[in-house]
Amino acid sequence: MSVITAPAAAPTELPVSRLESLLRARELGIALAILLVFGLTTLNNHAFARVASIQQLLIGAALIALLGVGETLVIVTRNVDLSVGSIVGLSAYIVGDLFKYHHNMPVVLGFVVAIAVGAAIGAINGFVTTVARVPSLVVTLAMLYVVRGVDGLIVNGKTIDPGSIPKAFTAVGYRTLFGIPWLAIIVAVVVATAGYAMRSFRSSRDLYGIGSNPDAAVLAGIPAGRRVFTAFLISGSLAGLAGALFLALHAQIDVSGGTGYELAVVAAVVVGGVAIFGGSGTVLGAALGAVLLNTINQALVASRISAFWNGAIAGGLLLAAIAFDRWLSLRVARSLQSAEGAHRDL
Amino acid sequence: MTSDLPTMTPVKHSHSVVENGNGAPWRALLRWESALVVVLIGALVFGSSESPNFLNPTNFFYIGMNMGEVAIMALPLTLVIMTGEIDLSVASMLGLSGTVMGYLFSNGWSIWLAMAAALVVGVLGGALNGVLVAKVGLPSIAVTIGTLALFRGIAEILLAPRTVTGFPSSLTTIGVVPIQGTQIAYSAAIFLGLAVVAGIVLHATPLGRALVAIGLQPEAAQFSGIRVNRIKIWLFVLSGVVCAFAGILLTLKNASVSYDAGTGLELNVVAIVLFGGVSIFGGRGTVIGVVLAVAIVGALQQALTQMNVQPEVQNIVIGVLLLISVVIPNGGEAIRRIRDRARRHA
Amino acid sequence: MHTARTVRRKVTLALAVTLVGAVVAACSSSTTTSPTGSATATSAKKGLTVYFIPKDTQNPYEVIADKGGQRALQELGGKVVVSSGTQDTAAAQIPSIQAAIQAHADAIVIAGNDPSALCPSLNQAATAGIKIVAFDSDISCGSSPVHLFINQANTEQIGTSEVDLLAKAIGSKGEIAILSAAASATNQNAWIGYMKQQLKKYPNMKLVSTVYGNDDPATSLTVLQGLLSAYPNLRGIISPTTVGISTAAQYLDTHKSLLSTLTLTGLGLPSQMKSYVHDGTVKQFELWNPDNLGYLAGYAAAGLASGSASLQTGSKFDAGKLGSYTVLAPSATTGPSVVLGPPTVFDISNIDKFNF
Fold it and tell me: Which member of B1, B138, B313 has the closest CB to residue A221?
């Protein structure tokens, strides 16, 4: 009986170093781009390099980077989660409402509730996608509408004012540790954990297999349904966490919280090197993509270029990123072919 | 081999239609469209039950007027999705073309030249999408998210924060008065005319059959001589032009334009097309289904507004409709699968 | 403020009684007595339906205003239907205008998301006999249709007082910026126009930038941070929008070191700004009572629909507990309008007195 190796393990000896180095180059490339933008802007406006400005850069990117982690997991499996923005708004409001009426609620409970709300919606997304076999684009698009609608009904014209949120909770939004904002630390921990898991655990590496070749993955015995469901569950939970952090950061919430985040996250993730058709990409890349896009946003303003240029530049960057990715994957494919050829000759 | 049978993530749906013979797809389609007819009747009954004035011609005029631009944009999107691609930049092109028209008009151009320029912008934008997707080979979901941001960004650079008004009243009345002697909105009439053309092309010409083939079996279509790339480029150009035209209509209807015209409409358009029975994977769907979907959504929104139901509920309704539109066809298969699996384990 | 209202009520009552006498003498027609006790032939009809169409159904400021309108129509034995969309666009408001036409409403009170896009639909409503009142954010339709604008305060006064407030706080010297709402919002642009004019009186103050937060906390925070990094020598920020000022206040509250050089003022809701005033983050800001704005608009709409109010310059109409209001002459930029009153300056001495 022939042994069918799971696709995730397929690129083993020869091509892996080339693959890995190309992938690592992507993260490095983005990091370099961030430094470049930062440097150019600072030349123009020294205030950009102040501690406060750098803290702002980190905080501004934090939520999108966090959402990017969950989105990466989902996109790697050849799916997409468009409901994250609505989840942020809903969980932020629910936690805010709880604080308003139970001012003594422990801060941790606020985070737990937020994550639970996100997890519930993520579970629905995952269930409908895997069991009912509905394309995730459609499921999460529908959930985007439904969750926004539910949020609107719950909020009902009210707003949670800063006075209602305990200071201990909002402290997460602005306190720093050795100058690094807590918000950035939390997100960095999530990114590091997810990144480590994606590289080391078999179940996470399965995600890549599912994304590169779903049929082969199933034939190789990967429990694809369970893995994809878990990916959506995590994406939803992280979106819920992002909602709690949103509330901590802004100390107020109304119905508009989180609107439009979904497209910003997908853009950040793609710029960060995650292939939209799945199978490759890292959470670190996604997080760096978020930092890059946010840095450019703030750099434009700091350079006193009209803020009206943001959208066009973001769009252009995204197109450049996917074109570059295409070129990169063609190179990888070619190198894999030549490696296979070399392998076969052995 | 593991007994964990496929609950895999959806992949290109090549299998289901290959199983059916030539006549069967028609039967399958007609089932969904008939269901839509029933839903439409239900929506009209629902509307008139709560609001006595619902079934009068003026109300139909209003529905036509409100839905006009979204409906017009849904037609080329239907053709694009039929070939297995997607165009999320439709609303941004609508905004950009209106912006260009307004910008030029406010700088002294004649209104007709300004409109022509707006259409040219549609051609260029559509060509950009088409070339990136068909020639360069980039995934359309990522490309059109990029152009969504890019087009909107260019509009922002051109016009923000101004609003252009003062369009010639002979043209602006067209959007708000019905056609002489009837209660049909001009945009509704244009939509129906375009729908007839689209329907004929899709269902009764070789080109239409080619589109279906591209959606179902891209490689086979390529090998059978269909110029897949050229067709896709032209489809995106068509989408760009039609959305530009919709942008002109919207600007005239509002008698004003600002850079954020139509923001967020792309999701509405996608939702309507999917609800109309067009498969997100391509190769399945009818123009009649999309027309019915437009009518249903228009009638429901009008009914809900007149019953003074909160607009958030409308969001929920659209989301649920979207879910239903995909769960029901897939649900039957899912139940069969679960039954098979249970039988196998028994 | 309480005493002023009582005085005004007495004056209104006296006026009303005199009018009643005059009318009875003139045409011996029956008089209607409204529940508040001011009996007058020029009071509004009963059973009116007024459609309130705010910018969207969720804006907290507008929600308060709509409630004021509901209160007004309740006093008059009529009813209010609040209808709008979820997005701040004209397209989202048009179905509500259509619903008002279909329901044969007597009047529409609308806060325009766009100065011109609503005109055609409102014109249709006017042709169907519906009276048009704009509040909070005006529409610009010329004579098609004609409408009454309920201005929360004198537009010019809002602009000039904002600049004056800030100037006093920063010694009339330094770079300042404006954190606004949506770039197309009529009221914002009108106030900013007057601010720029007033700034000419302070040659040592320079407006370096205007940024747009779209009435969204996340966007407002982003553009605020951009401001601070682009202009490190900024001395003052005016944010004439409740979302903008509360976002900026929260940021300053958590970065108190900025307060040594930066002063924030603007238009804010006392309920949102209370904690910031108490801990010194914001010293002064302005607003008016949005509930009163909606209440006045409700009475104006009812009056127009009943014929007891008109758009003629100098004509008066009754506004219940707020007393009598006079229609002001049209200007170059506005049609006939009514002004609620001067803005109230909130600071530590009075902020606890208000609950909106």
Answer: B1
C230, A162: Cβ pair inside 8 Å? no
pTM for the predicted model, two decimal places: 0.84
Q: What's the CATH code, domain A7-336? A: 1.10.3470
Reported as type and span, the H/E element at residue B118 is helix B111-130
Residue B73 lies in domain:
31-44+54-329
With CB atoms and an 8 Å threshold, state whether B253 touches C86.
Answer: no
- The answer to whether residues C304 and C283 belong to one domain is no
Residues of C in contact with A42 (CB under 8 A): none
Domain enclosing residue C11, as ranges:
1-43
Q: Is B85 left (phi over 0), alpha (psi -120 to 50) or beta?
A: beta
Least CA distance to A218: which residue of chain B? B6
pLDDT tens, chain A, 346 aa long:
444 444 444 444 445 566 667 666 788 888 988 999 899 888 988 878 888 888 888 988 999 999 999 999 999 999 999 999 999 999 999 999 999 998 888 999 999 999 999 999 999 999 999 988 888 988 998 999 899 999 988 988 787 877 788 888 988 888 888 889 999 999 999 999 999 999 899 888 899 999 999 889 989 999 999 999 999 999 999 999 999 999 998 887 877 778 888 888 998 998 898 988 888 899 999 999 999 988 888 887 778 777 778 788 888 888 988 888 788 778 877 888 877 666 555 4
Q: For residue C77, is it left (φ>0), alpha (ψ between -120 and 50) or beta?
A: left
- Cβ neighbours of residue B188 closer than 8 Å, sequence gap 6 or more: B61, B63, B64, B65, B67, B68, B71
Same domain flag for C306 and C182: no
Interface residues of chain C, partner chain A, Cβ below 8 Å: 57-60, 63, 86, 209, 211-212, 215-218, 221-223, 225-230, 232, 243, 246-247, 249-250, 253-255, 271-272, 274-276
Sheet containing strand C107-110, edge to edge, reads C79-82, C49-53, C107-110, C131-135, C148-151, C337-339
Is residue C231 located within the same domain as residue C304? no
Distance from the C122 Cα atom to the nearest Cα atom in chain B, whole angstroms: 11
